[in-house]
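> forwarded from #structure-qc
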């Protein structure tokens, strides 16, 4: 069984809640997922729910509440797939035990000017991802959809990834149909195209317009007005 451990920020929930639900509902015999929910994430989702009227933030908070009550949830549902999920909601006191210098290990001046709430998120990520938690030997990764947070994490040597990154890995591991279709399409492109390099030296595949290929789509009924 493969295990994945994510420190999840608010942007990942708001933009990728559907993906996170799917991962957590994956086959329990193949996949184990640990989610660490920073104090920042809860406060940010609460802000987005009440101030920005974000439906995604509201649903994310409800889902976090569901995960934190997995035993009671399963008592009333036949679906036991969530048993492969472990969620840890951060104690706010943990943030006080971590100094900013422990996070900004490279002494980057621009990081010192970040808002306190973002510094707290980086503290939470550093706590799990940089082995500050003496009671935890797992390898953690920050899951975020915010480019600013991803750049700041990189400056702190904190590993991070996006929803798409994780989706690709898990789809491949679970051998999902969407991944199989994607791989089949990519092979067709390479077979019928010509490999070249662009002006930046990156490899690209040039295809003939008259041999345009389209990625496969699911079966369905064509909509008409």
């Amino acid at each position: 069984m493969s295990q994945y451990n994510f420190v999840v920020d608010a942007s990942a929930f708001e933009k990728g809640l559907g993906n996170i639900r799917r991962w957590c509902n994956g086959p329990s015999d193949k996949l184990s997922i640990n989610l660490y929910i920073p104090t920042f994430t809860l406060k940010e989702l609460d802000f987005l729910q009440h101030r920005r009227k974000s439906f995604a933030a509201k649903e994310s908070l409800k889902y976090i509440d569901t995960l934190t009550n997995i035993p009671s949830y399963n008592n009333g549902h036949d679906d036991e797939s969530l048993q492969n999920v472990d969620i840890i909601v951060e104690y706010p006191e943990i943030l006080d035990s971590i100094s900013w210098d422990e996070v900004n290990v490279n002494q980057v001046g621009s990081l010192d000017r970040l808002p306190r709430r973002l510094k707290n998120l980086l503290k939470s990520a550093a706590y799990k991802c940089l082995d500050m938690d003496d009671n935890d030997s797992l390898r953690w990764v920050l899951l975020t959809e915010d480019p600013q947070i991803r750049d700041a994490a990189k400056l702190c040597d904190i590993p991070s990834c996006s929803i798409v990154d994780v989706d690709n890995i898990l789809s491949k591991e679970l051998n999902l149909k969407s991944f199989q279709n994607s791989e089949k399409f990519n092979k067709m492109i390479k077979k019928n195209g010509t490999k070249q390099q662009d002006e930046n030296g990156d490899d690209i595949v040039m295809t003939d317009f008259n041999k345009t290929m389209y990625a496969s789509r699911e079966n369905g009924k064509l909509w008409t007005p």
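QC bot note: Residues 177-225 form one domain. Residues 72-79 have pLDDT under 50 and may be disordered.
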